[in-house]
Amino acid sequence: MSDSTFNAEQFLGTSTESVGDTKYYPCPIGEWNAQVESVQARKVETDKGGENRTFYTLDVNWNVLDEDARRQTETEGDKKLIVRQGLFLDLTPGGALDFGKNKNVPLSRLREALGQQRAGRPWAPAHLVGGMAKVSVVHEPRADTGDPVARVKAVIAG
Predict the structure, then answer these.
(1) What is the rounded CA–CA span in Å between residue 52 and residue 48?
(2) Distance (Å, rounded) from C-alpha 34 to C-alpha 134?
(3) DSSP readout, 53-88?
(4) Fewer Cβ close by (within 10 Å): the C or N end of the chain?
(5) What domains can be seen in the chain, in order of their start residue?
(6) pLDDT tens-digit series, residues 112-126
(7) Is the pLDDT reported for residue 1 higher than 70?
C-alpha cells in the first residue's frame, strides 16, 4: 500500500479476523551470501547519567540471498530477508569521514571486503549499495523482550 492509497480514517475502522504472529523469525546464525540493499546515516543523541552525547552511525541493510537461510526463515518469492550492520562513524570537526589512525576501521574493513578500498578514487557511502559479500550473522537479544535480533558481525569478501 502506498502513501497515496492509505486512508487513516478508513484504516482505523477496518476489521480483521486474522491473528498476528507474536514471534520473530530472524535470519539464522551463520555465514550467508548477501547484497547491500540500502544504507542510512543517522544522528543519535543520548542522555546517559545526565551527560548529553551525540553519535553518528551508518546502517547497512543486507539482503540475504542464500537459499538455505531464506528456507529456514520461510522467506518466499521476492520477499527480502534483511539483516542490519550498524557502524559508528568517526567524523572530522568539519563533518567529513575521518580516515586517520584508528578511525572508521569497521567501515574501512567493509569497503575492503566489497573491493571499494582504493586510494585516490572517489568514494561515498552510497557506493556500498549493490555490493556483494558473505555476511557473518549473529543473534542478540532485544532489550525490551529478549527476542533474538539478527545482526551482521563481520563481512567477508565474496
Answers:
(1) 7
(2) 6
(3) EEEEEEEEEEEE--HHHHHHTT--TT---EEEEEEE
(4) N
(5) 22-157 (2.40.50)
(6) 999 999 999 999 999
(7) no
